[in-house]
Amino acid sequence: QVQLRESGGGLVQPGGSLRLSCVASGFSVSDYGMSWYRQAPGKKRELVAVTTTDGSMKNYAESVKGRFTIFRDEAHNSVYLQMNNLRPEDTAVYYCTRYAYDDWGQGTQVTGSS
Question: What is the mean pLDDT of residues 44-56?
Answer without folding.
Answer: 93
